[in-house]
Amino acid sequence: MKSVHITNYYHKNSGGISTSYNNLLAAAERHRRHVALIVPGETESVEIVNEFAKIYYVPAKYSPIFDKRYRIMMPWQYMMKDSAIRKILLGESQGPGVGKFMGQKGKGIGYLLEPKAATRISEPTPVFYLRLPAGKPIEEVVLLALSSTKQRREIELGPSLEKQELKAESRRSFESLEVGAQLFKITPMKLAPGEYLFLLLGSAEPPKGSYGKVYDFSIQAPAKPVKK
Q1: Residues 158, 129: contact at Cβ < 8 Å?
Q2: 92: exposed, middle or buried (Cβ count in 10 Å: 0-12, 13-18, 19+)
Q3: Does residue 48 form part of some domain?
């Protein structure tokens, strides 16, 4: 089960509404139910709250009326065909990616179902906010490029889950800055169009059906200009 919520009233200073949504995002992890929140922001970015919850920030201007401290998403931001909100909703309409692991000729292949991630971003240098579990350092997070087939996305993880050996050519660099308790702002180097994921090293729990905590996303090719 997955739910997607859109609101103009999620702000640092919005009191009870923010508290209510924060509780919902926290409950998503406890109940293992996927929840996404779409809110106004200064720039396009994604905050990964936990394995089951994330917040999409959509660029929006300050409100011209009422409380001008707040940004507000306007109707045309989700009515237009190529709007950021429509792209998010179309991406989230997919089922959540399911991590799997299989042995193949002496090497382990991790894969996600579906050829593309639900989260699709057009910015080649997107900004992410990643909240890590207590005690986990940012050095245990890696950004990996995936190879794609018609049915799924794959990454070679090494000979076994216990002995993960990630290929250097699959890794992508990123800058990180801790902006809160275990909350990191992550800015990758410029990414080419393709499929990617963040992997938390050492997070696989096969008995529980978990093959590593990941957050996957797509970088989309720029739209071609329409000829007049």
Answers
A1: no
A2: buried
A3: yes
Structural domain for 25, as ranges: 2-92
> pTM of whole model > 0.90?
no
77 and 107 inside one domain = no
Each residue's pLDDT tens digit, 11-59: 766 678 888 998 999 898 888 888 999 999 888 888 888 878 888 888 8
Residue 156, CA atoms < 13 Å, CB-side half-sphere: 12
| Whether residue 124 sits in one domain with residue 103 | yes
- Same domain for 112 and 183, yes or no, is yes
- Do 107 and 158 form a contact (C-beta atoms < 8 A)? yes
Q: Is residue 69 part of a domain?
A: yes
**Which residue intervals of the chain are DSSP H helices?**
16-31, 76-79, 84-92
Do 21 and 5 form a contact (C-beta atoms < 8 A)?
yes
CA distances from 168 to 7, 142, 155, 156, 190 (A): 41, 11, 12, 11, 17
